[in-house]
Every structure is written in structure tokens, then in C-alpha cells.
Amino acid sequence: MTPDLTTTYLGLPLRSPIVASASPLTGDLDTLLELEAAGVGAAVLPSLFEEQIEHEQVDVHELLEHMTHSFGEALTWFPELDDYSTGPEAYLEHLRAAKAALGVPVIASLNGISTGGWLRYARLCEEAGADALELNVYAVEADPAVPGAAVEERTVALVREVRAAISIPLAVKVGPFYSAFAHMAGRLHEAGADGLVLFNRFLQPDVDLETLAVEPRLVLSTPTELRLPLRWIAILRGRVPVSLAGTTGVHDWEGALKLLLAGADAVMVASAALERGPAVVQELLDGLRAWLEEREYVSVEQLKGSLSQAACPDPAAFERGNYMRALVSYAPGAGLRGHDPAGR
Q1: φ, ψ at 7 (rounded to 5°)
Q2: 102 occurs within a structural domain
Q3: pLDDT by residue (tens digit) across 179-230?
Q4: 29, 97 in Cβ contact below 8 A?
Q5: N or C terminus of the chain with fewer C-beta within 10 Å?
Q6: Cis peptide bond N-terminal to 199, omega within 30
Q7: Which residues in 130-263 belong to E strands, given as ranges?
Q8: Are residues 227 and 287 in the same domain?
């Protein structure tokens, strides 16, 4: 019997657990159709940034205020800013077109860190047809005067405000750099998150030694980066009642399978598709299907979370115990292997 690859993410039924993550690929309608043909269960559109929205709002606000002190009628001629269409209409139009063309769920994405007027675009994305919204919280906290508790409170408040603005499912994509991430995950759920996407990649700047300038440099993920979301998905599965999506480091079907075994409801792919094209999705699904058939699993649902910390016979494998075991089992020239410190 052919295994059932369907899964549920954010309460949405997906035909497969492979989701096209936000990237330039999902910003093109033709490529979205290729990704759908290859078998994705859903697609996350590229992020609409807080800075983009605020920039356009400022531009229009200057237009509305221009010459108001010279002509009395100008004070009432233009509509109020809140009633004026100021947002990146191209993004909303792409969302509408994607929703009309695709048969799989389309997830909009907002990227920001503060509360404010830009969040009305959460509602506009819902009105444009988004099946869910992914809130991408990306911030490098560089101010020594800002404590971690303040950062957490700001993020929780942001999630709460977005949740109040929309009725569609809400996922929150976060980075791992919280002092107590499991607790923060619970707070995000309490604030209204239906799912968590683990993890955001913090892109690091580089130094150009010729120009002596600091430059942004995009580097695609590598398979070794899978281990961070793998660990935390395994820890959170069954302990925080949210959907879990794994992203970063998924380059082959083995990586996708590991995340599902740890407890992911969906596996997001970006770098692999950017490197090898939308056809990589079919490669992942073929590998998953073959593995399930070989071990007589009937469905993805049957295996999801079977190696989570809650289900694992050795829960310490995801905590400090595994750290100590890895260090003492390393042999120079041989890599990691299963022996004790005495070399037996």
C-alpha cells in the first residue's frame, strides 16, 4: 500500500509535509506552480517587511501634508492616512494571484519586530486570501541597555497584536537565541501563536579586506544546521500545544525524515530548492515514500514525533547528557564513534 504523506499544519490539511519556505522562489508565480507540481503541501510567500510598509506610509504622509498650510481646502481634500491605500500593493497582488492559481495553501509572511500601524497588513493579507500568516520575528539585539526580558515582552506583545487582527492561523518564525526557549515557546502559544517555525537564520555580515567595508553576505544553509531545529522540535513536541515546522538545513529526504521523527508537522525547504530547483521537492518526497514503504509505515502521521523527547527512551539525548557523551566519544582522526573515554 502506498504510504499516506498527508499531514496537518496550523490546522490546515496538507497533501505532503514539504512546504516551500519564504524565498525568492515563492515570489514568482511560475515557480510557485512548479513547486506545486513537484508536490509541496503549501507555500510561504516572501516576507513583507515592516520597513517597506513604514517607508511607503511616510512617503504618502508627506504627500498628504504637502502644501496644507498654503491652501485651506487641502486640509479636507485628501482622506485620512488610515483610510488611504499606502501599502505595497504588489505584494498583496502577488498573494491574490498565488491564491487564485494554486491548489495548495498559500501562507503570507510579515517580517517585523515592533507594534504599530504596519500591522494592519496582517488583516490585508487575510482579506487578500491568505490561508495563514507567518510572522517572521528577526532582530539583532545590540543595545547593552535592553535586557532579555524586555525583548521577550516586545515579541509576545507583537504576537498578541497580530493575533487580535486576524482570524486565520498564525505561525511565528523565531530565532533560537532566548535564554529559556522552551518557556518562550509557551508564552508565544499563550499570546496566540498556532504554530512555531524553527528557526530563523540570522544572516551574518562579513568584512571585505580590499575595501575595508562591512558587507552583507548571503550564504545558503548546510545540512549540519539541521541539528538545532531537530533538537528543539523534539523537546517541544507534546509539551507546547502548537504546530511545529522545521526549517534550515533540509537538503535531502533524510533530513526531512529526521525532523518528522522528532515531531515536526511540516518541513520547510528554501536553500535546497534555490540550489537545485523546484524538482528537489519530488526527490524529498520519493525518498520519504520509499523509506515508509520499506519499514511498513502507513502514513506520515504514524511516525511523527516517534523520536521526540517525550517518546524517546533516552530523553537526555536531547539535553546535556548528549553533550557530554559526544565530547568523551571523540577520537582524533576517526570522528565520533561509540567508545568510552578509556578507549574500550
Answers
A1: -150, 175
A2: yes
A3: 999 999 999 999 999 999 999 987 778 898 999 999 887 788 899 999 999 9
A4: yes
A5: C
A6: yes
A7: 132-136, 170-174, 195-198, 205-208, 213-216, 243-246
A8: yes
DSSP SS3 for 44 = strand
Residues 300, 325, single domain; the answer is no
DSSP-derived pairing of the beta strands 205-208 and 213-216: antiparallel
Q: Residues 201, 324: one domain?
A: no
Amino acid at 297: Y
Task: Determine phi and psi for 271, rounding to 5 degrees.
Answer: -60, -45
Using only C-alpha atoms, the chain has a radius of gyration, in whole angstroms, of 23
Three-state DSSP at 271 gives: helix
For residue 1, being part of any structural domain is answered with no
Contacts for 106 with CB less than 8 Å, ≥ 6 apart = 42, 43, 45, 95, 98, 99, 129, 130, 131
327 shares its domain with 302: no
Q: 186, 236 in Cβ contact below 8 A?
A: no
* Same domain flag for 202 and 112: yes
Q: Are residues 213 and 328 in the same domain?
A: no
Residue 298 placed within a domain: yes
Block residue for cell numbers 516586545: 154
Total number of domains constituting the chain: 2
Closest to 139 (Cα-Cα) out of 248, 23, 51: 51
Residues 268-306 pLDDT 10s: 999 999 999 999 999 999 999 999 999 999 999 999 999
Cβ atoms of residues 176 and 130 within 8 Å: no
pLDDT (average), residues 237-254: 96
Give, in order, the Cα–Cα distances in Å from 262 to each of 15, 218, 245, 303, 318: 20, 28, 11, 9, 10
pTM for this predicted structure: 0.83
- Domain hosting 338: range is 313-344
